[in-house]
Design brief:
With about 240 residues, the protein is an all-alpha fold. The chain has helices at about 5-10, 15-20, 25-30, 35-65, 75-100, 100-105, 120-130, 135-165, 190, 195-235; strands at about 165, 175-180.
Amino acid sequence: MNERDRIGARIDPDSGLAAVVLGLCPAAAVSVRVIDALWMSIGLIVVIVLASLCVGLVSSFRRGESAPTAADAGPRRWLGVLALSSVVTACFEIGLLAIAPEESGTLGIYVPVIAVNCLVLGSLEGARRTASLGAAVASAARSGFTFAACLIVVTLVREILGSGTITVFPVGSFSGTFAVAGLSSDPVRAVGLAGGALICIGYLAAALRLVGADRDRKDGADTAAAVPAAKEGDA
């Protein structure tokens, strides 16, 4: 498997990675308004990219310095990863508090939870093992944007159906809220509850699996068509 395949495999729709990440508590908690999902997505992308960059730089330096020891695979390594993830997350939290204090209060404890998000920790471990610093950062960024896209889609569906609105960043006299005709006066409030998040995540996971299955079928058909052609060429 080449480097490109390894990076792509990290967000393979059929692997259910997006569904696992969205199944964490931040998904159900912040997927009520689009603006909350946007800030959470920005935070995760910032943390995952910067932390992966730091891990990649340290790993490159140590790789050139000496061979890894048995202690590198023990608890010390994970303590270091958690410490780095926590520091970067704390920096984002401070920045969010300075830029958007109201949004910081709305997200509350779910911003610090980014530090122990399984996607972040998995990407940091991948950055440690990847020989190329650029490939490690690209993989982390791709995973972060995948998380952001899935979270925003789930949130958009939940807010439109559950509240009849779309809440984005306010600009000037614009409050940042669009009312959806027909739903703002009579929304499907059950979708806006925590159970609604799980339903949306389930449909998203099913869609990702369908996309993965369709891609596998096309790849299989292309391979089957290429084999007879290769045999005719050899003949």
